[in-house]
Design goal:
With 292 residues, this protein is of the alpha/beta class. It has one domain (3-140, 208-282): UDP-N-acetylmuramoyl-L-alanine:D-glutamate ligase (3-Layer(aba) Sandwich), CATH 3.40.1190.20. The chain is built from 9 helices and 11 strands. It has helices spanning 17-27, 55-67, 83-96, 121-131, 141-148, 159-170, 216-229, 234-253, 266-282; strands spanning 3-13, 31-42, 51-53, 74-77, 102-105, 110-111, 114-115, 136-137, 176-182, 188-195, 200-207. The strands form 2 sheets. The protein has a 9-stranded mixed sheet with strand order 3-2-1-4-5-8-9-10-11, with helices on both faces. The longest helix is centred in the last third of the chain and has 20 residues, at 234-253.
Length: 292
């Protein structure tokens, strides 16, 4: 069985970060290990949430793993809350990123043209430095613009603009770039991927849902990481991840009294493993591979 270490916070209530990554990655037949950066009573859309920073524990945890000679097939990072945490991920990649370990960075720090509360332009540049160490990065348009230090363009952009943006992001150092939230009309939402080695750009558009929810980016990145580690190519991984997000939103909207703070990814979760296995078999890939 493949083994992933995912580094991000955990909200005790609210479907995001580790409460998404753990079940989603596990459901795909991949071992999910965690390095929690903080514990929150709820995610930050709630008022009055509690917060405990775990930065001081991260190095000791990683040192224990080194002593036990534990290795990982992938390191997947989500929301990181400080410069110190970014520095610690650099160390984690140095210590555990050898022997074919895949590095996937979701630079969670902003949306809709603005950085999240507490983040600065300098933090975005530090995140760009972390993305330079990654094989795959998964920014949205906001995060892309801040990491590149260019103005955010909300709409009216062209296909050529997006393709240039992808190449500039790859110029940070990541070999493969996935840009989320691309749209040219009110009916479709797109995922665009770029492989700098083959120079292949792949577009995938799906139905734009009538409502947005917290945590969908975490769901996308978690599915993406799981299927990449199991051996699927980038474009196929993007399609599976995007389709699962759509199915999760549809499941949420089917409930009259759905939660405003997160999507019902649990309902379609059972079908995710089947879709993953089917895609694996169609490409003639092995069903499992053991980690030591």
């Amino acid at each position: 069985m493949k083994r992933i270490i995912t580094v991000q916070d955990i909200s005790c209530v609210g479907k995001c970060s580790l409460t998404v990554a753990l079940p989603v990655i596990s459901a795909m037949g991949v071992e999910a290990c965690v390095l929690p950066t903080a514990v929150l009573s709820t995610h930050t859309a709630f008022k009055g949430f509690t917060f405990r920073d775990l930065t001081s524990d991260l190095s000791a945890i990683a040192e224990h793993w080194k002593n036990e000679k534990i290795r990982f097939d992938a390191i997947y990072t989500g929301y990181l809350g400080s410069f110190e945490q970014i520095d610690l991920i650099h160390s984690l990649i140095k210590d555990f990123g050898n022997g074919g370990t895949r590095i996937i960075v979701d630079p969670c720090m902003g949306d809709n043209g603005s950085l999240y509360s507490g983040f600065t332009k300098d933090f975005a540049l530090a995140m760009a430095g972390l993305c330079a160490k990654a094989e795959v990065i998964v920014p949205n348009l906001t995060e892309a613009s801040y990491m590149l230090g260019i103005p955010y363009v909300e709409k009216g952009y062209t296909k050529e603009y997006i393709e240039d943006l992808l190449k500039k992001l790859a110029g940070l150092g990541a070999r493969r770039v996935i840009l989320k939230g691309v749209s040219f009309d009110d009916k479709k939402l797109g995922i665009v991927s770029y492989d700098s080695e083959s120079e292949k750009i792949t577009w995938y558009f799906h139905e734009k849902m009538p409502q947005s929810f917290h945590g969908t980016g975490d769901i996308f990145a978690s599915v993406l990481t799981g299927v990449l580690v199991r051996g699927l190519k980038l474009d196929e991984a993007c399609r599976l991840a995007a389709d699962f997000v759509v199915e999760s939103i549809k499941a949420t909207l089917s409930h009259k009294d759905y939660n405003w703070y997160g999507v019902d990814f649990e309902t379609p979760l059972a079908s995710l493993r089947g879709a993953c296995d089917e895609a694996i078999q169609s490409h003639g890939l092995p069903r499992t591979s053991c980690s030591q």
